[in-house]
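Lecture 7, part 2: worked example. A protein chain together with iron/sulfur cluster.
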Amino acid sequence: MEEEERKATAEDRRLLEKLAVPPGLCATCEHLRLLASRRSVFVRCGLAATDPWFPRYPPLPVVACPGYRAQR
Ligand code: SF4
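Predicted complex, written out as structure tokens:
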């Protein structure tokens, strides 16, 4: 299955609002990345690539996070 990690677009963020488990802070965070295949979307934390403290796939919903940065 082909998967692609990318920065979240505004449309992606709208789709996230419809997930069964809301992503919480990640939905509006600058560091949000998505791993998307044809049938599924996974919330990934972009900080995980450079800081092992952050889980690659944060348990959702994220209600508090020291890395949170509001998207510009
Ligand atoms: S820094 Fe925190 S809030 Fe932002 S994407 Fe990563 S886990 Fe989510």
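The chain has a mean pLDDT of 87. The radius of gyration is 11 Å. Keep this in mind for problem set question 3.
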